[in-house]
Every structure is written in structure tokens, then in C-alpha cells.
# Entry
Amino acid sequence: MKFLFKISLIIIFSLCINELKANTLFDSINSAYLNNPKLNAERANKRASMEEKREAISEFLPSITISAYESEQDNTGGSESNFEPSEQSMKIEQKIFQGFGGIANLKKKKYGYNIAEFKLKKIEQETLLAAVEAHANLLLDIKKMNINLINIDLLERQVETDQNRLEKGEINLTDLAQSESSLLGAKAQLITVQNDLVISKANFEKIIGRKAPEDIQEIKKINLNLPMSLSAAYKISNSENPDLRIASLEFEQSKLDVTTARSNLSPSATLSYKIAEQDDISSTVQGRTQQTVTATATWPLFSGGSNIFNLRKVQELKNKKELLLEDSKKRIEIDVAKAWSNYQSSKSVLDSIRSQVKAAEIANEGIALEYESGNNRTTLEVIQSRTILLDSRISLASSEKNFLISRFSLLSAVGRLTASHLNLKQ
# Structure
């Protein structure tokens, strides 16, 4: 029994440890990476694109067809007797020339697979950024609730103190009413924060794919290997941003579509070999073996103009993709600049608010001591001081969240918010 009890304790302890480990930022990110249904759907799309690429290779391989038939022929009233002709055959056919349409299609499918890879990367970045935001928002709302609970505790003690001072005649009824009003306002604010926390938990479960933890861990310093300058960010985005790579590859595909459309106006050639064994063909021929080699060349001279019209259409679509590529370059450049600027500004704001919190704490402590010692500090001054401290602490929590998200947003803008860059479990 003692042995089983020890084993049970070890299992329970292990489960508790695993649960605690699942409360960090990177555990939330990793959970979303593995379990997000949209991301898993895009992984399936990538596998389908791989099969399309393999399918395109079949255009260059021979096709082999085996066929057979057997029939019964009744020659009633004729000179020939009844017989049952049959045939077994095999045909091998190889395309020799397709006007370069087959090569263009193969290259297009390869580009299609690369596009599927970058689309997966795009969804991966969106999922990971959403996971960071969900985790950070949950942590922020928990901090807000704790800050408000501390504030309510302080206000409750102040109301008790003011009631005692009122009985002693040190303050008047108006001062007590101000303290009680602040306490009721703080409780109302707590209700709002608690409602926000419920929403954050629901959003966390939706994006991360598991229940929101009650003891979520504070986000410690993390090294994301961010670009050192705006020019470095531009350089990285030009080669790694998925939207830009998708637009570039789609433009390359459109050029291949023009080649394919032109191949429909070009001659084509095929070579085939057929061997057939025929039995009981007629009353005079019992069986024979035929071998046939056929070379076929075709050239579509006129098909109602559809080939010409299709060529013009794909040429205009190529122009469209080229314009979209240029638009993507400009848009992504702006997005990178915004992400970099937001990262820099949020860092400066965070440093300023940290200094503000320290000053507010010193001011509030001094005013509270003066008030309790019976100096000339009024109840309103104490309330204002605590309100400033409360707001500054909440602003600090919000700024910490904004700074964290700005760093991940910068990674996403340049195209490096990926599982491999973050060293996630894959």
C-alpha cells in the first residue's frame, strides 16, 4: 500500500509540474502551433500541392494501356460458321513535343508548391501572433484584476480609518463620503475588469486550444533576434516576407501561363506502339499478332479564335500580377516601417511609464503618511494620489503588453515569426 501511495504521489506531482510548465508564453505559442485547425488545414493544402507537382511530372512519362474484348458472332444462313472473335492488346504512348507547354506546366506546379509553403508560413505567422496576443491579453487582465483588488483593499482600510477619525472629530462627513465613493467606484471597476478577464480566457481557449491557466506565468526577458535597424528589417523582408514571396511566385506563374497558351498554337507530336493478339477472327483466320508503331503530328491551324483569345487573356493576367507584385513591395515596405516605428515608440513609452510608476509610488506613500499623521493633507488628495498610482500601474501593464506584441509584430512583418525561428517543438 505504501508503494502504491508513493507511486500515486509521484504521478500527481508530475502532472502538477506539467501543468505549471504549460503556463509560459512559449508553451501557449507552441500549443497554438500544434493544434490550431486553420494552420493544420494549410498543412494539408501544402501536401496536396506536393501531389500536384508530382502529377505534372507524369506529362513526360509514357502511358501504358491494356485492353481486351471478346464477342460472339452468329452467321445463321451464311456460308461461314459461328465464331467468337477476341483481342488482347497493349499500347504504349509517349508525347514527343507539346510546344513547351508540358515544361511550363511542370515549372508552374513547382512554383505552386512554393506558394503553398509561403501560404503555410503566412498562416503560421498569423496564428503565432494571435497566440502571443491571446496570452498577453490574458496576463494583462489578470494583472488589472490584481491591481484593482489591491486598490480595493487599500480603500477599505482608508474607509475604516476615516470612520475612526470622524468619530474623533479629525475629519468631517464629506471626507468620509469621498472615501466611500472611491471604494464603490473601485468595486465597479473591478466588475468591468472581471468581465474582460472572462472574455480573455474564452479567446485564449479558442486560439491556444486548451483551457486558460489560473496561474499564468509572468513573461520574462526573451531574445527574439530582432533586426538591428530599419534597413536591416527591409533587407530581411525582401527575401523572407511570405506575402511578397507569394506575389513574386504568382507573377512567375503568370509568365508560364503565357508559355502554355502559346503552346496551344504550336505543333505537337506523339509516338505510340501497340501489340495485339487476335483469336478466332473468321472462319479462315484462327489467330494472329499485330504490332503497330504510329507517329502522330498535329498543328491546330484554326479553332474559332479561342486559342488567340486565351493567349491575350493570360497576357493581361500577367500584367495584372506584375502590378500586384509592385503594390505588394510598396505595401510591405510600409508595414515594416510601421512595425519598426511601433517597436521603437512602445519601448520608449514603456521606459517613461516605469519612471512614472516609481514617482507615483513615492508620492502616494508620502501623502498617505502625512494624511495618517494628521498633517494638512486632505482625503481628496489621498484619493487622487492613489488614483494616479492605480492608473500608472495599469498603464505599465498595458505598455508591457504593447511592447511585447510590437516585438512579435516586427518579426511577423519581416517574415521571421515562425516555429523554426522561435525554436518551437515541431
